[in-house]
Specification:
The chain has about 500 residues and is an all-alpha fold. Helix content is about 75%, strand content about 0%.
Length: about 500
């Protein structure tokens, strides 16, 4: 079987691509309206929502970026995983999920900006949140398409037939499958791909840990010994970045989870708010199991390199592909690579979905008081346009100048967290939260995150600018809300806040 490693991996990825097309065709039969396209008709079961939420949280980062961070910085990034599981899901489900779902029900909301408008009664809040989402989506989409194309190119170049395949061809193939899958199925396709991805990540997480342990005669204890002797900072509690950077990540990822629009939107899709009692433990279990892959691959590859068993990596993000290609069973490697494509595909679909909603639903409503006619048709057109633009940005960044994607990428987790977390967490639990505070906080968070990226500035001790923006946002939101005159809430929103 080892002699056919590359063919087995490609077969697994090929089967997944066919599955994507099948899911898209199946989901198209269940997508009859904009409500179906954007929020799956608010009629999903708890298992599907659970796996969709944790898959959206971990996404492709858990397969590539996470192991790369552990390889490069040791246990520093472990605080991201701890914060999301210990703090993030608790804040998300117990403070905002129930109220988001109920507002979506009583107001017919189809997007996060709809929820914010219902709470604050401010078109400016709807407009600014939609713009924030759209800017973040373009950065995320460009990097997702580029990542998918680069992985596909790496796999295909390992074969004789496609040894000379270009990145442009891989971008075209990846984007074509993505567009078909997203346009036909909308968010329904995304959540059911998340279901597949989530199951793959749970099983693969456990199997990869066993594989990592089996590489060393003494298991992970031997790997830890190698790291302690050669690079002791790697296995210290705060890794190589130290306590300040690690704690900044802890709060940014823990509190910031509630502000991620692709996660919060999925909290609107379950059939009943009572399902949250089932969704929370399943989500936590899935995330913890999948995070094992993230941690174990990074530690194992670092130990293999320092122990002179494996050649040094040219880039930290090669940790997962190198480990899977070299040490994992070919079938396991193929399944995990298929999971990687599932992660990228479902994440891209989720972002395309909220980006399309911002273009054809939220921004028109904020500016002219109503969304576009025939929203389902325009949503599909907007999805194609966003995909094509993101593909061109990805190629431009790779071949000409990576500054543009770097700038757009700044509107990622940190910007969503700083712009939307205080507006949601405080706004849905505190009657005094004011529309002016929401507008100011969203604006300031964009300025801080974009400003740091444009000016190339950094904070001492490796602290993320996103954490600074999040801290400033919460302080400003509370201060302005106290200074403003209390807002009279609509009766239905007031009753929901009582729950």
């Amino acid at each position: 079987m080892e002699a056919y490693r590359q063919e087995i991996i490609l077969a697994c990825v090929g089967v997944y691509m066919v599955l994507c097309i099948a899911v898209g065709l199946w989901a198209m039969r269940r997508t009859h309206s904009a409500d179906d396209f954007f929020v799956a008709g608010k009629n999903l079961g708890p298992l599907v929502v659970s796996l969709a939420v944790f898959s959206s949280t971990l996404s492709g980062f858990g397969f590539v970026g996470g192991p790369g961070l552990v390889y490069a910085t040791g246990l520093s990034s472990f605080w991201m995983a701890i914060s999301i599981s210990a703090l993030g899901y608790g804040l998300g489900f117990f403070l905002i999920a129930k109220r988001i779902r109920m507002i979506a029900e009583v107001r017919g909301a189809m997007s996060l900006p709809d929820i914010l408008f219902a709470r604050y009664g401010s078109e400016a809040t709807r407009l600014l949140s939609a713009i924030t989402i759209l800017l973040g989506v373009m950065g995320y989409m460009a990097t997702q398409i580029l990542a998918m194309a680069l992985v596909l190119q790496t796999l295909l170049q390992g074969t004789a037939m496609f040894a000379d395949i270009s990145l442009v061809a891989c971008v075209v193939v990846s984007s074509a499958v993505l567009i078909f899958y997203c346009v036909t199925g909308g968010i329904v396709a995304s959540v059911y791909t998340d279901l597949v991805q989530g199951l793959i990540m749970i099983v693969a997480g456990a199997l990869v840990v066993l594989t990592a342990i089996s590489i060393f005669d003494g298991g992970m204890a031997e790997a830890s010994t190698i790291l302690l002797e050669s690079d002791p900072e790697t296995v210290l509690p705060f890794g190589t970045l130290g306590p300040m950077a690690s704690m900044a990540w802890f709060f940014l990822f823990g509190i910031g989870l509630a502000g991620q629009p692709h996660v919060a939107t999925k909290m609107m899709m379950n059939r009943s708010v009572r399902d949250n009692r089932v969704i929370v433990p399943i989500t936590l279990f899935g995330y913890v199991m999948a995070a094992l892959l993230w941690i174990s691959i990074g530690i194992a590859m670092r130990a293999l390199v320092l122990g002179d068993v494996h050649l040094p990596l040219t880039a930290a993000d090669q940790a997962a592909p190198e480990f899977l290609n070299t040490y994992a069973h070919p079938l396991l490697a193929g399944i995990v690579f298929a999971g990687l494509f599932a992660a990228i595909m479902s994440t891209a679909d989720g972002f395309l979905n909220i980006g399309a909603a911002a273009i054809i639903h939220d921004i028109p409503r904020a500016l002219r008081g109503r969304s576009l006619n025939n929203e389902l048709m325009w949503a599909r057109i907007a999805t194609v346009v966003l995909s094509v633009i993101a593909a061109f940005i990805a190629l431009y960044a790779f071949y000409i100048n990576d500054t543009l994607v770097a700038l757009l990428g700044a509107f990622g987790w940190g910007t969503f967290a700083a712009a939307l977390a205080p507006v949601l967490i405080l706004g849905l639990n505190w009657r005094r939260a004011s529309p002016r505070a929401a507008v100011v906080v969203i604006t300031v968070s964009l300025v801080i995150n974009f400003g740091f990226q444009v000016l190339g500035m950094s904070l001492p001790w490796g602290v993320s600018p996103g954490f600074l923006a999040l801290l400033v946002s919460f302080i400003l939101f509370i201060a302005i809300s106290f200074l403003d005159k209390p807002q009279k809430l609509d009766r239905d929103i007031d009753r929901i806040l009582d729950l």
